[in-house]
Design goal:
- With 216 residues, this protein is an alpha/beta fold.
- The chain has one domain: Aldolase class I (TIM Barrel).
- The chain has eleven helices and eight strands.
- An eight-stranded parallel beta barrel has the order 1-2-3-4-5-6-7-8, surrounded by seven helices.
- Helix 1 (10-18) runs parallel beside helix 3.
- The longest helix is centred in the C-terminal third of the chain and has 16 residues, at 197-212.
- The chain is globular and about 75 Å long.
- The structure holds erythose-4-phosphate.
- Erythose-4-phosphate is lined by residues 6, 26, 28, 31, 108, 128, 130, 132-133, 164-165, 184.
Length: 216
C-alpha cells in the first residue's frame, strides 16, 4: 500500500520523506489555509520535494470547462500535480473533461460505492472515500472502502482507491488488509503508525542495562 501524507506542512513532509516511505501528498483548501503561506510558493515547494511523486490540489471552479483552465494553470507550477475534483454532477463532467485533456484526477469527497463507480467510469485515476467523516456520523467508513475495493476488483477497474480522512492506525491497517491502493494520513495519525509504548519501554530498558555492562 502506498503512503501519502495529508498535509501541506513542509517540515512534516520532509520528516516523512527522510524515512524513504512517502509516495505522495494530498491537500485541500482547509489544509493549505493552515500554513498561512502564499498558495503558489507553498505548492511549488511541496512539488519540488515530491517530484515525480503525485501532489494533490483541489480544483475550486464549479464549472467543468473552467476546471480544465484552472488545472492547466496549476500544471504550470509542476507536472506532478493531481487535480482533486469534488464528487457530483459537475465534478463528474469535470473529471471527464480533465481526463480527455490528459490531466490526472482524484475524485474527492466520496461517501458511497455508487459515487466511486461513477468516478472511475468518468476517468478518475484516484477516488478518495473519506472514512473518518463517515465514522463521525456513525457510519462505518471502512465498510465503504471494502465495497469499493471489491467492486473495482470485480470489474478490473484501474482507478486507485485512496483511503482518506484517516484518524488512527486501525484505519490504516484495515485499509491494507482490504487491499486499498493508498492511505493518506495527517502527520498526527502517521506518527501513531510507528509509536508503540512497548517499543519506548524496551528502548529505555536497553539504555539502562547498557550502562550496567562493564566497558573493559
Ligand atoms: C483527503 O484527500 C482529504 O484531504 C482528507 O483526508 C480529509 O480529511 P479530514 O476528514 O480529516 O478533513
Amino acid at each position: 500500500m502506498k503512503i501519502f501524507l495529508d498535509t501541506a506542512n513542509i517540515d512534516a513532509i520532509k520528516e516523512v520523506d527522510a524515512m524513504g516511505i512517502l509516495d505522495g501528498v494530498t491537500t485541500n483548501p482547509t489544509i493549505i489555509s493552515r500554513e498561512k503561506r502564499p498558495f503558489r510558493e507553498l505548492v511549488e515547494k511541496i512539488c519540488e520535494i515530491l517530484h515525480p511523486r503525485p501532489v494533490n490540489v483541489e480544483i475550486i471552479s464549479e464549472n467543468p470547462k473552467e476546471m480544465v483552465a484552472e488545472a492547466k494553470e496549476y500544471l504550470k507550477i509542476s507536472d506532478n500535480l493531481v487535480m482533486k475534483v469534488a464528487m457530483g454532477k459537475i465534478g463528474l463532467e469535470g473529471v471527464k473533461r480533465l481526463t480527455d485533456a490528459g490531466i490526472t484526477t482524484n475524485m474527492t469527497l466520496v461517501f458511497s460505492a455508487s459515487q466511486a463507480i461513477l468516478a472511475s467510469k468518468a476517468g478518475a485515476r484516484y477516488v478518495s472515500p473519506f472514512v473518518g467523516r463517515l465514522d463521525d456520523i456513525s457510519s462505518v467508513g471502512m465498510e465503504l472502502v471494502g465495497q469499493i475495493v471489491d467492486i473495482f476488483y470485480n470489474y478490473d477497474m484501474k482507478t486507485e482507491v485512496i483511503v482518506a480522512s484517516i484518524r488512527h492506525p486501525l484505519h490504516f491497517v484495515e485499509a491494507a488488509l482490504m487491499g486499498a491502493d493508498i492511505a493518506t494520513l495527517p502527520p498526527t495519525a502517521f506518527e501513531k503508525l510507528y509509536k508503540h509504548p512497548l517499543t519506548e519501554i524496551g528502548i529505555e530498558r536497553f539504555k539502562e542495562d547498557y550502562k550496567k555492562i562493564p566497558k573493559s
